[in-house]
Inverse folding.
């Protein structure tokens, strides 16, 4: 093993007039890949309230409450402040009602702003099947 | 010369996570060293007992931010063994692919940190710039840069298409060139070699008797690697060598890691070219019948062990994690002794410490079954006495 | 008139104001070049291309909380940064810039001012040691001891290297040495070894990588400056910047034929030549890792000093031939 003083010098000097590798983030953004795991969003018309997302979520970030039993109205709250972005809900969902979008700049000054609330009526079996087709 | 005690940590620029190294020094020479843990205990094992197996996958992933894939794989392997599941070939190959990409990112990160600890900031900047390539590859494959969440019980969650394969090969080609350059640089730049050669000596016998693991052990000339000794996932079919070095110092640890990078590139190219077709996962039942299992995995830092005990429900009764860093602590003390103060950060960084991962709660009971617990009242009583009396020594 | 000139000399150019502005510019230049060598951007937002960043840092530090350790010697602890700053500014006044006359010695240009500059540049080391010692912090104490240990390494080669051009020029006055080499520029070719020895020793004096041992961040936290904060730290940082300017100015006036031509051409020459020296310093900083204190002393006595002595012998030889 021979030592070479100033072994790094050529590499350093080569880069003086090159474009820096830094991306000046807030001003220029890199694109995220298409199947990036961003924020979970619900398509309420597809949800059949099977609650498998609630059961599988490791961060207990999804909450479903029944508003009225005869009208079949439900409220789902996705707590994005608790979410760990694992996309297990999207995978567990049998109707693909939850999907992950490309949103990654989700920082806010309040937890409450991260909470998304969906109030919806559970679709009837027939419409459910038609959307599946 | 007078001996003084200097505290390195829990808060110190050389340490990225809290741990306390107490050094007894004489001038610039370390005479004695002591390690105190427990500044970052998170109660993950207890938490795992209240979550289902699926949820625990994501919990174990968060044991470590750098070797996140190693913990999930280790856990998933254990659960699959308990269930007696046969994971499809393609799933195993993809798991191995992510594992090797993770090893590349971890080793490049470590190389940068080692350079930074030695005060070589330019090398640090360059390695981390190149590490972005592998981070981007991981993001393309899994959808996230840090927590890949690619594993599920019974396989992997995402498949690979041809455009992704092309991107991976492109990135690996670039990294191969850069790694060659860094190998050259790391072993010939006089100031860097002067800082790493001959310090933190850990002879072969000591390394074995102190139970060192991973690259630290292999740098002492012991060819021990779980991937070879007890192959899991697809490793039994991959061509690779166990990398060792025999100078037993920090430079040897650099060399071992750089060699492993090159082995990883070889493996990834093999995986991409010989990816079997078929499914990537099989469906796993939610409940697991009673049983226990020990799962081993070669993480970038060394051997990672998960012990899982199931009791017939959908939640584990006990999950025990032995992170590789814990196995390297006794060896670190041996390495630090008779070194220079200037070498503390390098020697400690050379084991690639991941401190939070290794924090476990130990309850000490004496022979009569008396548990030494400090009550809240006791802490309240002690705190003011320290506040009033400046020379009060905090009991540890 | 003379009083106004002296006032201008002390406070405007090349006194406090000029040194402040130029040293912050040099810090920016150093940071920017260091960043570009590492394929980064460096300071970018304050002023044009971040040129005001060091000034912004300085004023930000001025308004930060200023903490004095309980067990530290309050007076010494507080006085050291100001004294250090005064010392390096005084050294800066002795550089042969603008207001000097070859025929007539004045208060800032006299026989032996090269020794005075070297002496004044040696004092900051003592200031750093005292700062470390009086902080009564383990890390500071270790840093302070390392400062002194390093002093024994680099001071001798620096003196030998800087004095050898003076021997050829047969003068102990910076202005005359510069004037001599302006007349015989080819003689500078014999001083190349000395130039590099002096630059490396200056790097050690300024405590920059690979010689940033006394305040090695990853080893002993902030070293000598661990306990310093707020105004005092701001003054220390300014002091190091001015020391860098004065040190590179000294090397430029001794090895690179000085800054002749009056006010404006002299200023331009000064800026170009010192920036060249600072660029060399930055490149050295970028291409090395920090070495250990024993390796540093070893290096300076095994390599640096012999080369400085060789340079001295060459100078004596050259002088013999000239005469």
């Amino acid at each position: 093993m021979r030592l070479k003083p100033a072994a790094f010098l050529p590499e350093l000097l080569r880069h003086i007039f090159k474009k820096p590798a830094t991306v000046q983030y807030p001003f220029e953004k890199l694109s995220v890949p298409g199947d990036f795991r961003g924020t979970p969003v619900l398509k309420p018309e597809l949800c059949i309230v099977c609650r498998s997302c609630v059961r599988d979520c490791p961060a207990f970030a999804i909450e479903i409450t029944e508003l009225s039993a005869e009208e079949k109205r439900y409220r789902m709250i996705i707590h994005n402040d608790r979410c760990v972005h694992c996309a297990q809900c999207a995978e567990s969902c049998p109707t693909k009602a939850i999907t992950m979008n490309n949103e990654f700049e989700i920082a806010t000054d309040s937890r409450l702003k991260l909470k998304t609330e969906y109030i919806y009526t559970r679709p009837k079996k027939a419409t459910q099947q038609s959307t599946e087709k | 010369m007078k001996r003084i005690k200097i505290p390195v940590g829990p808060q110190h620029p050389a340490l990225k996570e809290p741990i306390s190294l107490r050094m007894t020094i004489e001038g610039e020479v370390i005479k004695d060293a002591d390690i105190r843990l427990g500044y970052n205990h998170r109660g993950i094992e207890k938490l795992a007992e209240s979550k289902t197996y699926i949820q625990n996958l994501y919990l174990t992933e968060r044991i470590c931010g750098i070797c996140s894939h190693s913990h999930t794989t280790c856990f998933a392997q254990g659960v699959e063994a308990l269930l007696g599941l046969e994971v499809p070939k393609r799933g195993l190959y993809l798991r191995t692919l992510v594992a090797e990409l993770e090893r590349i990112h971890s080793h490049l990160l470590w190389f940068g940190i080692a350079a930074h600890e030695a005060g070589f900031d330019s090398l640090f900047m360059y390695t981390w710039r190149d590490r972005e390539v592998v981070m981007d590859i991981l993001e393309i494959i899994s959808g996230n840069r840090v927590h890949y969440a690619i594993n599920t019980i019974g396989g992997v969650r995402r498949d690979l298409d041809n455009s992704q394969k092309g991107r991976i090969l492109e990135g690996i080609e670039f990294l191969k060139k850069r790694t060659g350059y860094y190998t050259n640089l790391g072993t010939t730049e006089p100031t860097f070699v002067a800082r790493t050669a001959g310090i933190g000596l850990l002879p072969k016998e000591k390394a074995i008797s102190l139970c060192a693991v991973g690259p630290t052990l292999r740098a002492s000339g012991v060819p021990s690697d779980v991937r070879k000794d007890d192959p899991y996932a697809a490793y039994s079919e991959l061509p690779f060598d166990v990398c060792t070095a025999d100078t037993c110092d920090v430079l040897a640890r650099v060399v071992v890691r750089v060699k492993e990078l090159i082995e990883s590139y070889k493996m990834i190219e093999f995986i991409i070219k010989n990816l079997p077709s078929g499914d990537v996962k099989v469906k796993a039942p939610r409940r697991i019948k009673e049983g226990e299992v020990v799962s081993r995995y070669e993480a970038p830092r060394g051997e990672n062990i998960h012990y899982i005990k199931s009791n017939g429900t959908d939640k584990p009764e006990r999950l025990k994690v032995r992170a590789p860093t814990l196995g390297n602590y006794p060896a670190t003390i041996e390495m630090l002794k008779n070194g220079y103060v200037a070498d503390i950060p390098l020697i400690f960084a050379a084991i690639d410490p991941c401190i939070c991962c290794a924090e476990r709660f130990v309850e000490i009971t004496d022979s009569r079954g008396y548990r030494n617990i400090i009550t809240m009242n006791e802490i309240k009583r002690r705190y003011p006495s320290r506040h009033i009396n400046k020379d009060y020594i905090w009991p540890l | 008139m003379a009083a106004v000139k002296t006032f201008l000399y002390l406070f405007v150019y090349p006194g406090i104001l000029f040194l402040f502005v130029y040293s912050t510019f040099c810090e920016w230049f150093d940071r920017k070049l260091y960043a570009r060598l590492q394929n980064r951007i460096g300071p970018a937002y304050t002023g044009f291309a971040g040129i005001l960043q060091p000034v912004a840092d300085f004023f930000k530090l001025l308004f930060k909380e200023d903490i004095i350790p309980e067990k530290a010697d309050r007076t010494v602890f507080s006085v050291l940064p100001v004294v250090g700053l005064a010392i390096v500014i005084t050294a800066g006044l002795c550089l042969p810039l603008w207001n000097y006359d070859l025929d007539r010695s004045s208060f800032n240009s006299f026989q032996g001012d090269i020794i005075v500059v070297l002496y004044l540049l040696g004092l900051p080391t003592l200031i750093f040691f005292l700062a470390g010692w009086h902080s009564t912090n383990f890390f500071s104490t270790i840093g302070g001891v390392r400062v002194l240990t390093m002093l024994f390494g680099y001071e001798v080669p620096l003196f030998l290297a800087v004095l050898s051009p003076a021997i050829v020029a047969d003068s102990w006055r910076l202005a005359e040495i510069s004037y001599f080499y302006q007349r015989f520029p080819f003689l500078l070719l014999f001083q190349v070894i000395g130039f590099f020895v002096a630059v490396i020793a200056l790097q050690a004096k300024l405590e920059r990588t690979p010689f940033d041992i006394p305040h090695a961040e990853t080893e002993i936290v902030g070293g000598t400056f661990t306990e310093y904060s707020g105004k005092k730290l701001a003054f220390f940082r300014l002091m190091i910047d001015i020391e860098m300017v004065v040190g590179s100015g000294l090397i430029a006036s001794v090895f690179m034929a000085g800054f002749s031509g009056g006010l404006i051409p002299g200023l331009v020459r000064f800026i170009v030549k010192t920036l060249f020296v600072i660029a060399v310093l930055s490149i050295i900083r970028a291409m090395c890792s920090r070495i250990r204190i024993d390796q540093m002393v070893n290096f300076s006595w095994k390599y640096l000093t012999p080369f400085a002595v060789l340079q001295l012998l060459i100078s004596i030889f050259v002088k013999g031939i000239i005469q």
Notes: Residues 138-169 of chain C form the longest helix (32 residues). The CA atoms of residues 164 and 315 of chain C lie 6 Å apart. Residues 18-322 of chain C form one domain. The mean pLDDT of chain C is 86.
